[in-house]
Amino acid sequence: MSSDVPSQLVTQCPTFTTDPSLTAFQVHPETYLSTLPNDIPCSPSDITPRFIAVGALTFDSHSRILLIQRASTDSMPHLWEIPGGGCDQDDPTVLHSVARELEEETGLRAVSVGPLVGGGYVFATRSGKVVCKYNFLVETDREAEGKEHWVKVRLDPNEHQNHVWATEEEVRAGCVGKVDVKFTTAEQRQVILDAFQMKRNVVRESAAGVEGGAQTA
C-alpha cells in the first residue's frame, strides 16, 4: 500500500475529508507502525507498540458526545467508552480504521475525521498485545446536516448494550440522567474531556474563519 493517500480518500471506501494536521496518519497501519516510537508522539515512549488502535469522538449539534456501554458478555462488562478498536490489514490508512470502527459499532458514517485529540498512549491488552491508541474528532453525516434528532445509533449486542449522548458536565459527574457512567480506563475519561475542549476550539476557529471571510468580502 502506498503511503501517498490523498485527503479525499479512495473511492472503494466511504469518502470523508481529513484535518490537514493528520498527514502522518494517511498511511497504512503497518507503515504507520514503522514510524514509531521516534517520529510520532506516543507515551510512554520507551515501549514499542506492535498494534494501533483508534477511537472516534463524535458529537451531536447540542455539544453532547456519544458514549457506548460494553456488553455484559464482553471484557470490561458494563463499562463505557467511545466507539473504536484496532486497525485492520484491510484498512487503507489509519484514518479509514477510525471511520470503519465508528460505522461498525454505531452505524454512523464519518464525513470528516480530525483533528487528533491528545497524543497516543500505550497500553497492554490482557493477551499481552502492546497497543498505541489515538483518538480523533469525527463529524458524522447527520451532524453535518444538523439532523441529530434523526440519528439512530445501531449497536452490535455482542459488543455493546447501550448508548448515551452526554454533556461535559455529565461526563464529569459520571451520570447521564439515571444512567451511571463508569469508563473503561482513566485515559478514556480524560480523552473524552479533552475532546470537549477541542470541539470548542474547532467551533471558535470555524466561526472566526466565517467572520474573517465576511469581512474580506
Q: Describe it for me?
A:
This protein has 217 residues and is an alpha/beta fold. Helices cover 28% and strands 27% of the residues. The protein is built from five helices and eleven strands. It has helices at residues 29-33, 94-106, 141-145, 168-173, 186-216; strands at 17-18, 42-43, 51-57, 65-70, 80-81, 84-86, 110-124, 130-140, 160-166, 175-176, 179-180. The strands form three sheets. Strands 1, 2, 3, 6, 7 and 8 form a six-stranded mixed sheet that branches. A three-stranded antiparallel sheet has the order 5-4-9. It has a two-stranded antiparallel ribbon with strand order 10-11. It is globular, with a radius of gyration of 17 Å.
Number of strands: 11
Global mean pLDDT: 84
Low-confidence stretches: 1-12
Taken in chain order, the helices and strands follow as EHEEEEEHEEHEHEEH
Task: Quickly give the CATH architecture.
Answer: Alpha-Beta Complex
Q: How many helices in DSSP terms?
A: 5
Helix content: 25-40%
- Major beta sheet summary: 6 strands, mixed
Outline, from the CA principal axes? globular
Rg, alpha carbons: 17 Å
- State the CATH superfamily name: Nucleoside Triphosphate Pyrophosphohydrolase
Q: How many independent structural domains?
A: 1
CATH level-1 class: Alpha Beta
Strand content: 25-35%
First-residue to last-residue Cα separation: 43 Å
CATH topology: the name is Nucleoside Triphosphate Pyrophosphohydrolase
Question: Main traits of this protein?
Answer:
disordered N terminus; 217 residues; alpha/beta; 5 helices; 3-stranded antiparallel sheet; globular; single chain; 6-stranded mixed sheet; Nucleoside Triphosphate Pyrophosphohydrolase
